[in-house]
Amino acid sequence: MITTTSKVLLFLSVGLLFACSPPKAEIEPETQTSMPALNGQQAEFMTALRLHCGKAYGGKMVSDDPVDQDMKHLPMVMQVNCATDTIRIPFSVGDDRSRTWIFTKTETGLRLKHQHNHEDGSADAVSFYGGDTADMGTATRQEFPVDAFSTALFLKEGLDASMSNVWAVEITPILYAYELNRENRHFRVEFDLTKQVPTPPKPW
After folding, report:
1. Would you call 4 helix, strand, or coil by DSSP?
2. Distance CA 101, CA 85 (A)
3. Taking 70 as the threshold, does the pLDDT of residue 21 lie above it?
4. By the number of CB atoms within 10 A of the CB, which of 8, 32, 65, 190 ranks highest?
5. Can you give the pTM of this predicted structure?
6. What percentage of the chain reaches a pLDDT higher than 90?
7. Could you tell me which residues come within 8 angstroms of residue 133 by beta carbon, excluding any fewer than 6 positions away?
8. Quick one: DSSP state of residue 122?
């Protein structure tokens, strides 16, 4: 038989249990850290990329900078991975599968980073460089001026010429293009989005 004293003790115990439990906001902090919605053009740009999740496409270099001539006739493949909010696009040049383009959303726009790995999967000394959008861009083209992290990395690694880099990515229903531009430097590759190719195996 439950006495009045027992009921009081039970009530106090339940009250203490709820008082000590963390609030829901602490259990699910991601609900408070979500980024603001992208503007129309940038949202459309990311949506256009996501239309190709899980697919791979062949491409080629279309620029004529002499420094890139060793890549001119090599087969190129991009594949679009969207397992999370981040869009990762591994970029293969011939047998070299060391490069990955990484697109993420920031508080003010979009970010493009470049991940580079050695053949064994270890990180290259020059990796995760890139930049953030400085304006709204368009639904089909976004530009990414070099950021502070990247300029410091380039300076450390003796890549002074890269400190003025501006990368650009274009996407239309039939084309994906990646560019690197700076004074006396232009690199551009284009991929045909109308024809899928086999997905390359994981490099490591």
Report:
1. helix
2. 14
3. no
4. 190
5. 0.80
6. 72
7. 42, 108, 109, 110, 111, 142, 143, 144
8. P
Report strand pairing: 110-116 vs 129-132: antiparallel
Q: Which residues contact 39 (CB under 8 A, 6 or more apart)?
A: 109, 136
How is residue 196 written in tokens?
């899928």
**Each residue's pLDDT tens digit, 103-126:** 999 999 999 999 999 877 788 999
Match 């259990």 to its residue by tokens: 27
53: Cβ–Cβ under 8 A, 6 or more apart, which residues? 80, 81, 82, 87
What is the rounded distance in angstroms from the CA atom of residue 154 to the CA atom of residue 165?
Answer: 10
Cβ neighbours of residue 54 closer than 8 Å, sequence gap 6 or more: 80, 81, 82
In which residue are the tokens 């609030």 written?
23
Judge contact between 189 and 60, C-beta under 8 A: yes
What whole-number distance in Å separates Cα of residue 175 and Cα of residue 194? Answer: 8
- Please name the residues in contact with 170: beta carbons below 8 A apart, sequence gap of 6 or more: 140, 141, 176, 177, 179
- What torsion do the CA atoms of 34, 38, 43, 49 make, to the nearest 10 degrees? -50
Beta bridge partners of 102: 88, 113
